[in-house]
Design goal:
33% of the residues lie in helices and 28% in strands. It is an alpha+beta fold. It folds into three domains: 86 residues, no CATH class; 124 residues, Sandwich (Jelly Rolls), CATH 2.60.120.10; 103 residues, no CATH class. Helix 2 packs across helix 3.
C-alpha cells in the first residue's frame, strides 16, 4: 500500500557527478528535522538546498514503503551549470537491518582509514596548525592508492588534478632528458604547485619504488583551503621555495634568491655563478657562523668565513652540507677592481681534494 511521505529525516547519496564544483560521487546529504547537513569541509549549495527543500516538503509519494524497505527515488540538481544525480538512500524511521549493517561497515572502514593516515599526517609541517579534530575530518577525505615502481604519476604539461602525500616508498622528479632532478619519500607532498597556480604540471613525477600515496582531489583541496586559510600561507611559501629550487637546478639564479644547502651544495651554487658570469654576493648562514663570498663576472674576488679568508675560506665552505644561503646582485665598490683570488676551477678542485684526503685519514 502506497502512502504519502515527506522526507523529514532522510539520507540522500550522490550517484552521479559532472562538473559539480562542490560535491563528489558517493557523498551523503543528510536531512534531519528538515535541516540539510553536507559533508565536512563542504559549503552548502543554494541550488541543491532549494532542490532538496522541494523534495522534503512535497506531499507527493516519492517512494513506496513496505516491511521490506523502500524503493530508491532519483533526483537531479543542475542549477549552477554542473550536474549531480542523487538518490534517496533511507528514511530514519525505515532503516533496514541490511542498511544498519552497511552503515556499521562504513563506520568501521572510516575508523581504519583514520588510524592508518592520522599518525603520518600529524607529523607533517603542512598540517601542524590543525587541531586533531580538524585533521581527522581532513583524513576522511583522502583516498589511498598503491603505485608500482617506475610508473608515471604526474606527466609534464597535463592539468593538475590531485595533491599527493607519500605514505611509503619513493618518487622522483624527472627532467625532459630523463635525468632525476629530485627525490621525495615518506611524508613529502607533491602536486600542490599545479593546484595552487592553476598551471599545467611543470615536471613529470615517476615512482622509483613501490609507493603508497594518499590523494586529495582538487575539489576537496580547495574546500580545505577555504576552511583553513592558514594552510594557504604554508602552501604558497612551499610553492615559492620549490620554484626557486627548480630554477637553481636549471642553472638560473636571481637577486634575492634564498634556499637550503641540503638541497643544493655550495659547489653547485658557486659553479652556477661562475658559469653564468654573475657579479654578486652569497651570504651563508651556517651552524658554525656566517660566511660571505663575492663574485665578479663569475670569478671569486673575496671570501671570508669566521677567521678564514679567500682560498682558505672557500676550502672550508666546499665541505659544508647544511645551512641557508641568500644571493644578492652586486658587490661593494672597493671590490670592483679586486683581482680573482685564483682560478675558479683550481680552487674548487683543491677544496674537494682536501675533503677526500681528510676522509682517508684514519
Amino acid at each position: 500500500m502506497k502512502q504519502q511521505v515527506k522526507y523529514r529525516d532522510a539520507i540522500f547519496i550522490v550517484t552521479g557527478e559532472k562538473s559539480c564544483p562542490i560535491y563528489n560521487l558517493g557523498e551523503e546529504l543528510k536531512v534531519v528535522n528538515y535541516s540539510l547537513s553536507v559533508p565536512s569541509f563542504k559549503p552548502s549549495c543554494l541550488f541543491l538546498t532549494a532542490e532538496i527543500s522541494k523534495i522534503v516538503t512535497s506531499r507527493e509519494s516519492f517512494s513506496t514503503f513496505s516491511r521490506f524497505g523502500s524503493q530508491n527515488a532519483r533526483f537531479d540538481c543542475g542549477g549552477c551549470g554542473g550536474m549531480i544525480h542523487f538518490e534517496f538512500k533511507k528514511e530514519k524511521d525505515f532503516a533496514t537491518l541490511q542498511m544498519k549493517l552497511l552503515n556499521e561497515t562504513e563506520e568501521r572502514r572510516k575508523r581504519q582509514h583514520l588510524d592508518k593516515f592520522f599518525g603520518v599526517l600529524r607529523n607533517l609541517d603542512i598540517f601542524e596548525s590543525l587541531d586533531d579534530d580538524a585533521l581527522s575530518d581532513l583524513t576522511l577525505l583522502l583516498e589511498l592508492k598503491t603505485i608500482p615502481v617506475d610508473k608515471v604519476i604526474l606527466k609534464k604539461g597535463e592539468p593538475g588534478s590531485h595533491l599527493y602525500i607519500v605514505l611509503s616508498g619513493q618518487v622522483a622528479v624527472i627532467a625532459d632528458d630523463r635525468s632525476r632532478l629530485a627525490e621525495m619519500g615518506t611524508g613529502e607532498i607533491f602536486g600542490e604547485m599545479s593546484l595552487l597556480s592553476g598551471e599545467p604540471v611543470t615536471s613529470s613525477i615517476h615512482s622509483s619504488a613501490d609507493t603508497e600515496v594518499a590523494i586529495l582531489s582538487t575539489k576537496n583541496f580547495k574546500h580545505v583551503l577555504k576552511k583553513y586559510p592558514i594552510l594557504q600561507i604554508f602552501l604558497f611559501k612551499l610553492l615559492v621555495k620549490r620554484a626557486q629550487t627548480m630554477s637553481l637546478r636549471s642553472g638560473k639564479i636571481s637577486s634575492g634568491m634564498t634556499g637550503e644547502l641540503s638541497e643544493i651544495s655550495t659547489v653547485d651554487l658557486f659553479q652556477l655563478i661562475n658559469s653564468s658570469q654573475k657579479t654578486g654576493r652569497f651570504d651563508l648562514i651556517l651552524e658554525q657562523g656566517k660566511a660571505m663570498v663575492f663574485f665578479k663576472e663569475g670569478e671569486i674576488v673575496h671570501a671570508r668565513f669566521l677567521e678564514l679568508r679567500n682560498k682558505e675560506a672557500i676550502f672550508a665552505l666546499v665541505g659544508v652540507k647544511n645551512g641557508h644561503f641568500i644571493y644578492t646582485k652586486g658587490i661593494p665598490k672597493e671590490l670592483d677592481k679586486a683581482p680573482p683570488i685564483g682560478g675558479f676551477m683550481g680552487i674548487i678542485m683543491e677544496g674537494l681534494q682536501r675533503i677526500d684526503e681528510h676522509k682517508e685519514k684514519p
